[in-house]
Amino acid sequence: MSFKFLNIDLSQLEFESCLGSGCYGGSVCLYRNRKDKRNRRIVVKSIPYNSPEYAYETVTKEHTILSQVNHPRILRYFGFFQTNDSWNMITEFAERGNLAEFLHRRKQQGAFLTQRVVMAKYRDMAEALQYLHQRKVIHRDLKPGNVLIDADNRLKLADFGIAKICTNVSLDEEMNMTIVGTPLFMAPEVASGKRYDYKSDVWPLGVIFYELCMLEHPFVERFLEGEESMERKKFSPPQIDCARHGFSRDMQSLCEMMIQVEPKQRWTLEKILKDDRVVGLMEREM
Ligand SMILES: Nc1ncnc2c1ncn2[C@@H]1O[C@H](COP(=O)(O)OP(=O)(O)O)[C@@H](O)[C@H]1O
Ligand SMILES: [Mg+2]
Fold first, then answer.
1. Which residue is closest in CA terms to ligand 1's atom 19?
2. CATH number for the domain formed by residue range(s) 10-92
3. Do residues 245 and 115 lie in contact, with contact meaning Cβ atoms separated by under 8 Å?
4. What is the pLDDT of residue 231?
5. What are 85-134's pLDDT values in tens digits?
6. Which of 41, 88, 90, 98 has most ligand 1 atoms within 8 Å of CB, for mutation?
7. Using CA atoms, how far apart are residues 9 and 217, in angstroms rounded to an integer?
8. Measuring from each residue's beta carbon to the nearest atom of ligand 1, which residues come in under 6 Å?
9. Helix axes 276-285, 115-134, angle to 10 degrees
């Protein structure tokens, strides 16, 4: 068993807390490494051997992809180990939890974000996604729960269990038609079982961007009492209330580049990040 970046003696790991129950009966737990002088903590995502076959596919997929990427805005992966009853992946710890919890808290407090903060968060996610797309990886499950926040309030993309590496120049039709991901954040072509594309990651990025601006999902009413009580709104192009929040009108333009039902109308990330208005918004953010 070898670790690429860390030399961890498993007997020195001390359990601290459970961060989440991973899907398929797995768990995501926080450990302190007693041997580490800087007292850094690590996260172990475990999957029991008695999990269904497809659960293994997700962890092995996640392992394959995380082993190949190295970007400050993508959760850092340290390697895996096996125990008598589970398969385990070690990653860095994102101290401030996930973006879904962050958005929920801000909504409860009615604490809207400034344009500068929205753009800083947008930039983190866009840079991570652009890096992936350049390496022919589609994340396919972009949503606030899979975006983590570190101690410096920078975002890190996580959860690559259903990501897809497109090895062929033309995307693999059959694989790309599988319905995966989270319905609330799925691009329409994905939800209706049509073809996947890099642009299928741009739609959820747009939905998250809108949520950062308005603290609500563009197509669903969510009531604070419980996530079950959701009501799907009829689709209409989302409108960011720029005047109310003191945003530039270019924020609405950026939203419209991403939230387009027709994939042909939707921009690629590469084109978005080169657009003068977007460059302007990013510069003002700094
Ligand atoms: N490295 C980490 N640091 C902090 N929290 C994490 C970390 N990894 C996972 N989590 C928490 O656990 C949740 C589930 O992890 P995730 O990787 O998305 O697994 P799943 O495949 O079960 O969705 C995340 O939404 C986040 O709240
Ligand atoms: Mg997840």
1. 22
2. 3.30.200.20
3. yes
4. 59
5. 898 999 999 999 999 999 999 999 999 999 999 999 999 999 999 999 99
6. 98
7. 44
8. 19-20, 22-23, 28, 43, 45, 75, 91, 93-94, 97-98, 145-146, 148, 158-159, 161
9. 120
Annotated catalytic residue within 9, 36, 124, 141: 141
Question: What is the DSSP code string of 228-247?
Answer: EEEEEPPP------HHHHT-
Which of 13-27, 176-190, 225-239, 253-267 is predicted least confidently? Answer: 225-239
- List, in order, residues 6 or more apart from 236 with CB less than 8 Å away: none
Homologous superfamily of domain range 97-284: Transferase(Phosphotransferase) domain 1 (1.10.510.10)
Task: Write the burial class of residue 96 (CB in 10 Å: 0-12 exposed, 13-18 middle, 19+ buried).
Answer: middle
- Is 124 an active-site residue? no
3-state DSSP call for residue 61?
Answer: helix
Average pLDDT over residues 243-251: 97
pLDDT band at 221 (very low <50, low <70, confident <90, very high): low
Q: Note the pLDDT of residue 28.
A: 94
Index of the ligand 1 atom closest to the CA of residue 101: 27
Q: Where are the domains of the chain?
A: 10-92, 97-284
